[in-house]
């Protein structure tokens, strides 16, 4: 059965992204089809934890581009049927390994968004700064979009991933809420051994119950 895991930490610097990348690689080497998603839009960089050609990975559209593509279709500026760009998820997903691993496993990456060439990074930063999550949910069918995305990635259906892992934004944020509350089957919480980290992590855990 396919599952969606969100890796969360209340504060940064606890090894969350590295842990998720290592687990994703291990599962792929054990024969599973795995997707790693960089949901930390304000501090992107999950691609750095994998042995990929950095420029090629950053030149590939990612999560923020997928969100914008959906809004474009919903506004009527692009098709909303099966030919819609946002429905063609393979355009936004970058293979970590160009060929399946010896046991058939695959590891793919949905980056935070396109940041190459250099001018594209400025467009990425502007898109992230101006993206209004409340507006996306209230006026752009955001909840329906993420329900569709979850089904497209983990099913039910054919050719979905065995495991999807999302590297969440830290703290209490709209992005973290989407990862932890709507998308995840399991939330993996990492924490440093101090009161600020432990208290914040405990509070979020209580909210999820």
Could you characterize the architecture of this molecule?
There is one protein chain. The chain is of the alpha/beta class. 43% of the residues lie in helices and 14% in strands. The chain has 8 helices and 6 strands. Strands 3-4-2-5-1-6 form a 6-stranded mixed sheet, sandwiched between helices. It is globular. The chain starts with a strand and ends with a helix. 36% of the residues are buried. The mean pLDDT is 91.
Uncertain stretches of 5 or more adjacent residues: none
Report the sheet with the most strands, covering strand number, pairing sense and barrel closure.
6 strands, mixed
pLDDT averaged residue by residue:
91
Strand order of the largest sheet: 3-4-2-5-1-6
Q: Helix content range of the residues, please?
A: 40-55%
N-to-C CA distance: 23 Å
Q: What Rg do the Cα atoms give?
A: 17 Å
TL;DR of this structure?
This protein has 209 residues and is of the alpha/beta class. It has helices at residues 16-29, 54-59, 63-74, 118-130, 133-139, 142-154, 174-183, 195-208, and strands spanning 3-9, 33-38, 94-95, 106-110, 163-167, 186-190. It is 43% helix and 14% strand.
Topology:
Elements: E1 3-9, H1 16-29, E2 33-38, H2 54-59, H3 63-74, E3 94-95, E4 106-110, H4 118-130, H5 133-139, H6 142-154, E5 163-167, H7 174-183, E6 186-190, H8 195-208
Parallel strand pairs: 1-5, 1-6, 2-4, 2-5
Antiparallel strand pairs: 3-4
Question: Which tags fit this structure?
Answer:
209 residues, alpha/beta, 6-stranded mixed β-sheet, globular
């Amino acid at each position: 059965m396919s599952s969606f895991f969100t890796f969360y930490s209340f504060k940064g610097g606890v090894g969350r992204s590295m842990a998720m990348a290592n687990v994703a690689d291990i599962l792929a080497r054990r024969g599973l089809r795995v997707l790693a998603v960089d949901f930390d839009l304000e501090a992107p960089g999950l691609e750095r934890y994998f042995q990929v050609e950095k420029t090629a990975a950053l030149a590939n559209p990612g999560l923020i581009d997928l969100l914008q593509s959906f809004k474009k279709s919903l506004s009527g500026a692009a098709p909303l049927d099966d030919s819609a760009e946002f429905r063609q998820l393979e355009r936004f997903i970058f293979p970590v390994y160009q060929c399946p691993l010896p046991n058939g496993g695959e590891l793919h990456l949905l980056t935070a968004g396109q940041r190459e060439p250099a001018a594209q990074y400025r467009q990425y930063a502007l898109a992230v700064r101006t993206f209004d999550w409340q507006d996306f949910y209230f006026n752009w069918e955001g909840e329906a979009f993420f329900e569709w995305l979850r089904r497209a990635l983990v099913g039910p259906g054919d050719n979905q991933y065995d495991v999807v892992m999302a590297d969440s934004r830290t703290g209490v944020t709209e992005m973290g809420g989407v990862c932890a509350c709507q998308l995840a089957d399991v939330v993996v919480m990492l924490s440093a051994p101090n009161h600020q980290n432990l208290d914040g992590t405990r509070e979020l855990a209580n909210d999820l119950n």
